[in-house]
Design brief:
It is built from ten helices and no strands. Helix 6 runs parallel beside helix 8. It has 174 residues and is mainly alpha-helical. It is 76% helix and 0% strand. It is elongated and about 60 Å long.
């Protein structure tokens, strides 16, 4: 097999692990990825794939450490930041998720997944002005998207209401 010929060829290990996962053997997929990680300890793709395997196995603490490590090993891969942020958000850590996404914007200012997650999490956190700021590039990327248009319009309306309440002496934070 390709892995026997060249154990540093991570693509073969990841593909084989995906095949095992697809057939329902997540434990075997994990074993393949751990072997690949032993041969390639600084491989972002292997670390990320192993993290996802652990998420599927409901082992979030181990998974989070690997997802963070994958992002550190391959900061140029925007998907790793996005997946880490989603995992943080799913664990109730919205602020940390937003921080990861904002950090990723420096290298990936027009990444659709990062921007969409950032807008969504900012809206959910009540940070409408921030959501609008991050929504503008999204609308530029997909000007005909009805979902984006509706999200931005709803956020603008909600922000207008909050501003009017604040001007009238309300005590809500923007």
């Amino acid at each position: 097999s390709a892995m026997e010929i060249d154990p540093t060829f991570v693509g073969a290990s990841i593909s084989l692990a995906d095949l095992e996962r697809a057939t329902g053997d997540e434990a075997r997929a994990e074993a393949i990825l751990r072997a690949a990680l032993a041969a390639n300890p600084r491989s972002g793709p292997v670390v990320h794939a192993l993290g996802l395997s652990l998420v599927r196995q409901k082992r979030p603490d181990e998974a989070m450490a690997l997802l963070e490590r994958a992002r550190e090993l391959a900061p140029d891969v925007s998907r790793y930041s996005y997946v880490l942020a989603v995992a943080l958000h799913d664990r109730g850590k919205a602020r940390e998720a937003i921080a990861v996404l904002k950090g990723a914007l420096g290298s990936h200012p027009y990444d659709r997944e990062i921007l969409m997650a950032l807008v969504t999490y900012e809206i959910q956190s009540g940070n409408l002005a921030e959501a609008l700021q991050h929504g503008d590039p999204l609308v530029g990327l997909e000007p005909a998207s009805p979902i984006l248009e509706r999200t931005v319009c709803t956020s603008e309306l909600a922000l207008d209401v909050l501003l009017a309440e604040a001007a009238a002496g309300g005590d809500r934070d923007l």
